[in-house]
Amino acid sequence: MALLEVNDLAVSFVTRNGVNKAVDGISFSVESGKITAIIGESGSGKSVACYSMLGLIPMPPGRIDGGTAVFEGRDLLQLSESELRKVRGRDVAMIFQDPMTCLNPFMTVGKQLMEPLIYHHKVSQAEARERALELLDEVGIREPESTIDNFPHQFSGGMRQRVMIAMALINEPKLLIADEPTTALDVTIQAQILHLIANLQTKRDIGVIFISHDLAVVADIADEIVVMQQGRIVEAGDREGIFSNASHPYTQKLLAAIPSDSKTPMAETPEPLIQVRNLCTWFSQGGKQPVVKAVNDVSFDIRRGEVLGLVGESGSGKSTIGRSLLRLVPVTSGEVSFDGTDVTALHGNALKDMRRRMQMIFQDPFASLNPRMTVFDTLAEPLLLHGIENRKTVTAGVLKLMDDVGLARAFVRKYPHEFSGGQRQRIAIGRALATRPEFIVADEPVSALDVTIQAQILDLMQELGREYGLTMLFVSHDLAVVRHLADRILVLYKGELVEEGTGEQLFEHPQEEYTRSLLSAIPGRALLA
Amino acid sequence: MTTQIISDIDEAEKGTSLWKDAWLRLRKNRLAVIGLVTLVFFIVIALITPWIAPYSYQAQNLDLGATPPSAAHWLGTDIFGRDMLTQIMYGGRISLAVGFVATAVALVIGITWGAIAGYAGGRVDAVMMRLVDILYALPFMIFIVLLMVVFGRNMLLLFLAIGAVEWLTMARIMRSQVQSLRQQEFVEAAVSLGLSPATIIRRHIVPNALGPIIVYTTLTIPSVMLLEAFLSFLGLGIQPPQTSWGLLISYGAETMEEFPWLLIFPGLALTLTLFSLNFLGDGLRDALDVRGSRD
After folding, report:
1. Cβ proximity of A220 and A526 under 8 Å
2. Which of A2, A378, A418, B261 has most Cβ atoms within 10 angstroms of its Cβ?
3. Nearest-CA distance from A15 to chain B in Å?
4. Cβ B195–A394 below 8 Å, yes or no?
């Protein structure tokens, strides 16, 4: 018998714009000892479905319209709040995307682990500590004896997620709900956490619901996969079935959106547009603390018309390199020459003119657009500033840009918050193109977007790159995306260049240990290749 | 400029700006709307007082003396036989003017100062904010008393003196706003477009920092009005024959056992205004806080 049997669950949110059916009659089941992955893009209702069963959505505006969710013979939807609380604490545990917000920063990790034991199970202080140490060891924290009395901020992101998992396991739950537990983590750490979850699930024989927006992430660990779109389940089945012969067009679209090919590098080798020599960007932390060498002695060329990929994990300095080239952060030493001019020495009007020639596309389209400016104002600003259009012709210029990035002209007077993430990124791309730049730094331009939108934006960028004859530095943590887009790839580790090569060279014959570990961490490689 | 230029795109849909969105939310907050209406009512009355006041401002009737509310004098008369309603209406003109003008002075200085300090950062910021700290540390009553003694008592000076004290907090709020906005990617994008710092502050930073500033403004106006009342009460603010609510309350307090209406009515006018501003400020805070109310 299934551990959790959800039948025809429907949840809606009542807002001032009407009733929004977040979950529209879904049925699925979770077995003990299996991992069920729920896959869907933002707004598909994947999280709402799980949270509503446990009474974790705010009501109102939330409302459960019907259905059952039978967990060990009891319908969770019929339980009172106090009964639900017992289920949540004991039988069902959750882990979330951002472990830092779920841990109390003022309590040591050990105390936070021991508290529920002492409170719920009435065990002694010493026993609780013993148990906490065992758990930390089980989730792969090295030397738990010496780290148990540390505070959450003393752990790295991956270690914090391990602590969260330990906390989730403390009451020996029968069902673990993991909501995007690896989305905030680097790709190598993600691989470790996925491995850990799969191991624990086998060892403890518990059921796991793994919520994710990314099919590739669950490719290696899921037993069953449920694909959701707009509150409905469009397809469900075992892993092999989904990956080898998905029948629903949406699932096929999701699979097709996972980039898996290498770009054929440019045939000729044109002269470099940008030459970076011994670039160092260090940040002082004030006082006697040592400087952070974000970028340390990095040299490379970007050839005219090529897309250069820059990959590395968080803290590798990859974004800082992009910002250094554009003079958005002060360069400590070294030379950046753009078409023969040393960018680091420019001031005043010369700098302003140089800024016109190089632009940036940012990671988060929700933060990179001024929320109080319409699309028109956002796009008109650079056009007028650099005298590309005058007051009379600026409308035509703005509309041309909107056409280029695929935004409907009718949206010209709308504000950023009225657009979806993908549309906003189109606006941001339009703004970057407005100055007719020769060079663009794209800093993780798709990592905040849903998978299918990612594919659209990447296509758009490639197309515009050709049309405008752009040279591009494409910064990303995602090797698969970079390989799909870039002519050459640089691998960065702790502020220094580790390896350089075409996508094919790196993927087939990685030279360095670090590159190999990055490659092996790409989720679902075996299934998707 | 925008509307004119793109009027030829006839199919363009009009977007909802965040300001409009906030207004829609504010409209649903009943207390805030009542506050706003009351406030507008008081302001309109103050503006047209010279034409609608039932009696002349100077009109005395010493024979009449202090009388309780009656058909001829709705709010009674004071010890000189002057009509209280007229007195309160003229007093309101002064009190509201002090409240709004002094706050406006504080706003202009505070926003400019805070925005520059926050955007420039580093040494400029340190020097500018230390100056604010020093001014904060001055005992402000002594400061105002000194000003009044040295320059004599006049209305303009009162505006400046109060404004000069209130801008300090405004500058601090603005600075912290700007500091967090400066880290935002859209400001970075503006830098990379080649905009000058002045344009970035004006177009990208100040409009986004205004929310908390507006809320704080609605809370500053009452505190400024109270300050004026307090100063007048001490005899340092408005001088007779001009009057203000603070002054009327001060006189009323002297005779409150015999003629309570001389205290109650001006007190009521001040209290109503302060309540209105506070409710409005509360409503604005909720309406402008996008995170809290994205339904």
Report:
1. yes
2. A378
3. 6
4. no
